[in-house]
Protein backbone atom coordinates (compact mmCIF):
# COMPACT_ATOMS: atom_id res chain seq x y z
CA UNK A 1 0.00 0.00 0.00
CA UNK A 2 1.24 3.49 -0.82
CA UNK A 3 1.82 5.50 2.33
CA UNK A 4 1.57 9.23 1.66
CA UNK A 5 0.57 10.05 5.22
CA UNK A 6 3.53 9.30 7.51
CA UNK A 7 2.56 8.06 10.92
CA UNK A 8 -0.92 7.01 9.76
CA UNK A 9 -0.01 3.70 8.18
CA UNK A 10 -1.57 1.69 10.98
CA UNK A 11 -4.93 3.47 10.80
CA UNK A 12 -4.94 3.31 7.00
CA UNK A 13 -4.26 -0.41 7.11
CA UNK A 14 -7.06 -0.78 9.65
CA UNK A 15 -9.39 1.10 7.33
CA UNK A 16 -8.50 -1.08 4.37
CA UNK A 17 -8.86 -4.20 6.49
CA UNK A 18 -12.28 -3.05 7.66
CA UNK A 19 -13.56 -2.45 4.14
CA UNK A 20 -12.29 -5.68 2.57
CA UNK A 21 -14.91 -8.09 1.35
CA UNK A 22 -13.13 -11.43 1.00
CA UNK A 23 -15.71 -13.08 -1.22
CA UNK A 24 -15.85 -10.22 -3.74
CA UNK A 25 -12.14 -9.34 -3.55
CA UNK A 26 -12.95 -5.63 -3.13
CA UNK A 27 -10.18 -3.55 -1.61
CA UNK A 28 -10.06 0.16 -0.94
CA UNK A 29 -6.30 0.63 -0.53
CA UNK A 30 -5.98 1.88 -4.11
CA UNK A 31 -8.90 4.25 -3.52
CA UNK A 32 -7.21 5.69 -0.42
CA UNK A 33 -3.95 6.11 -2.36
CA UNK A 34 -5.79 7.84 -5.22
CA UNK A 35 -7.47 10.25 -2.81
CA UNK A 36 -4.11 10.98 -1.22
CA UNK A 37 -2.42 11.66 -4.56
CA UNK A 38 -5.40 13.77 -5.68
CA UNK A 39 -4.97 16.01 -2.64
CA UNK A 40 -1.17 16.21 -2.94
CA UNK A 41 -1.29 17.15 -6.64
CA UNK A 42 -3.52 20.10 -5.81
CA UNK A 43 -1.29 21.36 -3.00
CA UNK A 44 -3.64 20.19 -0.27
CA UNK A 45 -2.49 18.34 2.84
CA UNK A 46 -2.92 14.55 2.72
CA UNK A 47 -5.38 14.76 5.60
CA UNK A 48 -8.28 17.19 5.36
CA UNK A 49 -8.06 18.09 9.06
CA UNK A 50 -4.60 19.67 8.92
CA UNK A 51 -5.75 23.16 7.86
CA UNK A 52 -8.89 25.21 7.99
CA UNK A 53 -11.02 27.21 10.37
CA UNK A 54 -11.81 24.27 12.61
CA UNK A 55 -8.12 23.65 13.31
CA UNK A 56 -6.70 27.17 12.98
CA UNK A 57 -9.21 29.24 14.94
CA UNK A 58 -9.61 29.06 18.73
CA UNK A 59 -12.36 26.94 20.22
CA UNK A 60 -13.71 29.81 22.34
CA UNK A 61 -13.24 33.55 22.95
CA UNK A 62 -13.34 35.86 25.93
CA UNK A 63 -16.38 38.15 26.13
CA UNK A 64 -14.19 41.20 26.83
CA UNK A 65 -12.10 40.70 23.66
CA UNK A 66 -8.88 39.39 25.22
CA UNK A 67 -6.92 37.04 22.95
CA UNK A 68 -7.47 33.37 23.67
CA UNK A 69 -4.54 31.08 24.41
CA UNK A 70 -3.69 28.43 21.83
CA UNK A 71 -5.55 25.20 22.52
CA UNK A 72 -3.02 22.97 20.74
CA UNK A 73 0.66 23.11 19.92
CA UNK A 74 -0.35 22.81 16.25
CA UNK A 75 -2.22 26.11 16.46
CA UNK A 76 0.82 27.77 18.00
CA UNK A 77 3.11 26.33 15.31
CA UNK A 78 0.79 27.43 12.49
CA UNK A 79 0.45 30.90 14.05
CA UNK A 80 4.26 31.25 14.20
CA UNK A 81 4.61 30.02 10.61
CA UNK A 82 1.92 32.45 9.40
CA UNK A 83 3.61 35.31 11.24
CA UNK A 84 6.95 34.45 9.62
CA UNK A 85 5.39 34.31 6.14
CA UNK A 86 3.72 37.68 6.77
CA UNK A 87 7.05 39.22 7.83
CA UNK A 88 8.74 37.84 4.70
CA UNK A 89 5.94 39.26 2.54
CA UNK A 90 6.30 42.68 4.17
CA UNK A 91 10.07 42.62 3.66
CA UNK A 92 9.59 41.69 -0.01
CA UNK A 93 7.05 44.51 -0.48
CA UNK A 94 9.44 47.00 1.13
CA UNK A 95 12.25 45.91 -1.20
CA UNK A 96 9.94 46.31 -4.22
CA UNK A 97 8.95 49.81 -3.03
CA UNK A 98 12.62 50.70 -2.50
CA UNK A 99 13.49 49.46 -6.00
CA UNK A 100 10.61 51.48 -7.50
CA UNK A 101 11.79 54.64 -5.71
CA UNK A 102 15.38 54.05 -6.87
CA UNK A 103 14.18 53.60 -10.46
CA UNK A 104 12.09 56.78 -10.26
CA UNK A 105 15.11 58.70 -8.92
CA UNK A 106 17.30 57.29 -11.71
CA UNK A 107 14.77 58.41 -14.34
CA UNK A 108 14.59 61.89 -12.82
CA UNK A 109 18.40 62.19 -12.91
CA UNK A 110 18.47 61.07 -16.55
CA UNK A 111 15.71 63.52 -17.45
CA UNK A 112 17.50 66.39 -15.65
CA UNK A 113 20.74 65.54 -17.47
CA UNK A 114 18.91 65.52 -20.81
CA UNK A 115 17.31 68.89 -20.00
CA UNK A 116 20.71 70.31 -19.06
CA UNK A 117 22.31 69.18 -22.32
CA UNK A 118 19.40 70.18 -24.59
CA UNK A 119 20.15 73.99 -24.84
CA UNK A 120 23.82 73.33 -25.71
CA UNK A 121 23.00 71.38 -28.86
CA UNK A 122 22.73 73.32 -32.09
CA UNK A 123 21.05 72.22 -35.29
CA UNK A 124 23.26 71.22 -38.19
CA UNK A 125 22.78 70.95 -41.93
CA UNK A 126 19.44 71.97 -43.53
CA UNK A 127 17.83 72.66 -40.14
CA UNK A 128 20.46 75.37 -39.53
CA UNK A 129 19.52 77.21 -42.76
CA UNK A 130 15.83 77.33 -42.07
Automatic annotation (TrEMBL):
Instruction: Kindly list the GO CC terms recorded for this protein.
Output: mitochondrial large ribosomal subunit
One GO biological process term is: mitochondrial translation
Q: Which InterPro entries match?
A: Ribosomal_mL52
Where are the residues of the annotated region Disordered? 109-130
Task: Kindly list the residue ranges recorded as spanning the membrane.
Answer: none
- Renumbered to this chain, the Basic and acidic residues biased-composition regions fall at 109-118
Q: What are the protein's UniProt keywords?
A: Mitochondrion, Ribonucleoprotein, Ribosomal protein, Transit peptide
Localisation: Mitochondrion
Q: Which PANTHER family match?
A: 39S RIBOSOMAL PROTEIN L52, MITOCHONDRIAL, LARGE RIBOSOMAL SUBUNIT PROTEIN ML52
Sequence similarity: Belongs to the mitochondrion-specific ribosomal protein mL52 family.
Q: What is the name listed in the Swiss-Prot or TrEMBL entry for this protein?
A: Large ribosomal subunit protein mL52
User: What organism does the record attribute this protein to?
Assistant: Macrostomum lignano
Organism phylogeny: Eukaryota, Metazoa, Spiralia, Lophotrochozoa, Platyhelminthes
Amino acid sequence: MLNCMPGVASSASLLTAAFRVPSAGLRTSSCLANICWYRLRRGLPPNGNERGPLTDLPDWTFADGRPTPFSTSGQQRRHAANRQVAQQALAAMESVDLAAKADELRQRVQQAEAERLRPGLRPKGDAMLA
